[in-house]
Amino acid sequence: MEKKDGVLIDIKEDDLELLKSNPDEFWKGVTKIGEYAFWDCKKSLTSINIPEGVTEIEECAFSRCSNLRKIIIPESLTKIRANAFDGCSSLTSITIPKGVTKIEWDAFRYCSSLTSVTIPEGVTEIQSGAFEGCSSLKSVTIPNTVRWIGWNVFRDCSSLTSVTIPEGVISIGKWAFVNCSSLPSITIPNSVTEIGEDAFWGCSNLREIIIPEGVEIEEETFRY
Questions:
Q1: pTM for the whole thing?
Q2: What is the C-alpha to C-alpha distance for residues 64 and 88, in angstroms, rounded to an integer?
Q3: Mean per-residue pLDDT for 101-120?
């Protein structure tokens, strides 16, 4: 384990013993969790409580922590970077704090046990692949502050039965809801001006679609 200018990096399996026995010492002086910090800590990391004062979780910080089931994120956090929790296949729920304004690309990709997620007011972008492959995710409410839903955001979320797209969303990206095969209906708000190619491809249970006039719909958006 290393700490450099408040950034926690290079956690080994042995360092997790200190996290368990003396968390105050483990987190002392830490303001950011660095790139790949906990990457591939598969064996021992089952839960983690990130303390107040930590402001960023950098790229791939918890990627492939496949036994991580529970995480508490502090209100001080403002950034969750790309691939931060990619492949955390045992993680069941997560609450994103209010200071976060973007959910970066692939942040929670393949969190296949994730059943619920709270996206706070203040988030303006859900970037490409953010929840791709979250096959246990059943419902999600997108806050009114979101303007862009990126490519592949909910791709292969096969358990998704309810999603609320609020007024204010301008663009729904390509393949955003591909293979959401349990989704029965969708309402597109008046603020949307563009729905990307194949955005709802493979939504085989989709029975009701409400789309306002003037929306630009790419080729084969609803094919299945």
A1: 0.92
A2: 5
A3: 94
